[in-house]
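Please, structure for the following, as tokens.
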Amino acid sequence: MSAGFLMFYSVLVLFGMMLLGIYGVVTRSNMVKKIIMLNIMGDAINMLFIIIGYRLVYPVFPPVYEGHIPFDEFLRTAVDPVPQALVLTAVVIGMAMNILLSTYAIQIYRLYGTVDVRDVAHLRREGK
């Protein structure tokens, strides 16, 4: 199989994972399941950014110039470091978001005894 063929199907699978994450966030009423689906969607987006920055040439070099190859060859074969930096930042932000959302879910469970958003909305309308 060629690298372009595998990259096409990798992007297709990642778009499917993103759609699965959106579907889960929109249709599920359990907060824990919503957090899990949000993680799946975020991880798929991060992987998509990594694939976008990859080069389909061989050999692929890391984005650090060491001087043992000509500079023009390095420019053609080095992986783009910008998507890697963006994904690293997104992973840290995603972890902080997961902690915050999990804390909210725990606190809502302590207050209302459930993590179902429909039940919480019903209980809030009743004033409990």
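The CA atoms of residues 27 and 88 lie 29 Å apart. The mean pLDDT is 88.
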